[in-house]
Amino acid sequence: MTTPAIHVRGLHKSYKDLHVLRGVDFDVARGSIFALLGSNGAGKTTAVRILATLLKPDGGTAGVNGFDVVTHADDVRSVISLTGQFAAVDEILSGRENLVLVARLRHLKNPGKIADDLLRRFSLTDAATRKVATYSGGMRRRLDIAMSLIGNPPVIFLDEPTTGLDPEARLEVWAAVKDLAASGTTVLLTTQYLDEAEQLADRIAILHEGRIIVNGTLAELKRLLPPAEVEYVEKQPTLEDVFLAVVGSHTERP
Predict the structure, then answer these.
(1) For the whole model, what pTM was predicted?
(2) Distances in Å between the alpha carbon of 15 and those of 3, 20, 21, 43, 109?
């Protein structure tokens, strides 16, 4: 299928006088990683909650896997999974028991095999029988992502998946996210970490004050700034340079 996995046009959302989203447009290609980058309060989580049918937009349209998020919310829920900012795992259970429980709740056949396959896929087999309370932050997050994949949803939303993790745990999660896309899963990732978007995303959109102000590949975004020359050595702009430049130029003034 050549149609995008996620299609958003003119999305608006306000909370009384607070305008969180003000005409957001973007598409996410199937099997790709799309990063929605922005500071705290930029509207990233609100956009994800609308796409996951947890909020209704005030205006505009949004579709996931061909289903409208408002008129076909049940269909959307059947093809997505959402992983929030904090790992939603049961610390009393083992990693394997968490996975088996979710598979049973979804009435899937062979929950034990599903659990073992996911433990293997996310390099958690050696810790399968340990209580999750003993897991590191990176292991918990990998288990959380594994749980969200039960039922093989074609689209997954990761809302700031590495918040609060140490550098080593972040690398573990990054590897897991790359594996998702390599297997054909479409990933929409929200983050405030510039290096995370730079490392993971096929396309990056910067959300600022409720609007998408730039959207493109990393190479396209870097071309927004001219290279600087210092002693005849060309310095290519980093994503941080691009972010600060475009956000600064679009900041509203009183």
Answers:
(1) 0.82
(2) 32, 7, 10, 12, 43
Over the stretch 145-173, which tens digit does the pLDDT of each residue have? 889 889 889 999 998 888 877 888 788 88
Assess contact for 21 and 46: CB atoms under 8 A.
Answer: yes
Rounded to whole angstroms, the Cα distance separating 95 from 90 reads 9
Among residues 21, 9, 23, the alpha carbon closest in space to that of 61 is found at: 9
Residue with tokens 């990683």, as numbered in its chain: 33
Percent of residues, the chain, with pLDDT higher than 90: 57
Closest by alpha carbon to 6, among 67, 84, 56, 85? 67
Burial of 109 (0-12, 13-18, 19+ CB in 10 A): exposed
Q: For residue 140, what are the contacts with CB-CB under 8 A and spacing of at least 6? A: 87, 89, 132
The domain 6-250 having CATH identifier 3.40.50.410: the answer here is no
197 by DSSP, 3-state: which? helix
